[in-house]
Specification:
The protein is mostly beta strands. The chain folds into 2 domains: 4-97, no CATH class; 101-187, Immunoglobulin-like (Sandwich), CATH 2.60.40.10. 0% of the residues lie in helices and 48% in strands. The protein has no helices and 17 strands. The strands form 5 sheets. The chain has a 5-stranded antiparallel β-sheet, with no helix packed on it. A 4-stranded mixed β-sheet has the order 10-17-16-13, with no helix packed on it. Strand 1 and strand 2 form a beta hairpin. The termini are far apart. The model has no long low-confidence stretch (mean pLDDT 80).
Length: 189
């Protein structure tokens, strides 16, 4: 079962592995589409998906009505979200499922020869819950012996023989990173 996380109206997350942020949020984007429907969208963190505040101003029965709601989704599709995707601000925080990555590959093993450069393609995973691309490895992993791109290509060059243990991570928006153990055995020839 995926982890349920709570998102408040500012986009702050509370869940099994997160706590609400301490710093006060600052608005990073505001969008009032030229659709003439009286909707204005705001977000307070540049992350994506994010909490999207929607303020709708309409006239009903000769009276001005302002409705504030919040959704949690991709900022790029804000104006195409359905009314059912938004919740009244006073119902905050809203609960959404954290996406979950499924990885069954176990330890990935490779062999190399000392002093040579190699390029290995790592096997990725799939999404158990959610729809974001699951096969992206953390591009932030670097060491003196190996570099891993966000697409899962590992480039290695070892100066000495031995066994090297590396951990890469499968990542996706709103998913807990999944560690991928890698063992490279480097021989003299």
């Amino acid at each position: 079962m995926p982890e349920t996380i709570k998102i408040d109206i500012w986009g702050q997350i509370e869940g099994e592995s997160d706590n609400y942020r301490i710093k006060p949020p600052e608005r990073v984007d505001i969008d009032a589409p030229a659709l003439g429907d009286g909707r204005t969208f705001e977000r307070f963190y540049a992350e994506c998906p994010c909490a999207i505040q929607c303020t709708t101003t309409i006239t009903e029965g000769g009276r001005l009505v302002v409705r504030k709601e919040v959704a949690y989704n991709d900022w790029e599709i804000r104006s195409s979200l359905a009314d059912s995707d938004f919740y009244p601000i006073n119902s905050s925080p809203i609960s959404v499922y954290r996406q979950e990555i499924f990885y069954s590959g176990g330890t990935q093993t490779f062999t190399a020869v000392k002093g040579s450069s190699y390029e290995f393609v790592l096997s990725g995973g799939s999404m158990r819950y959610g729809s974001a691309a699951p096969d992206f490895f953390s591009s932030s992993y670097h060491s003196s012996q190996a570099q891993i791109t966000s697409g899962g290509t590992m480039t290695v060059a070892f100066a000495s023989a031995g066994t090297y243990n590396i951990t890469a991570f499968l990542v996706a928006p709103l998913a807990k990173p999944v560690p991928v153990p890698i063992v490279i055995t480097v021989t003299n020839s």
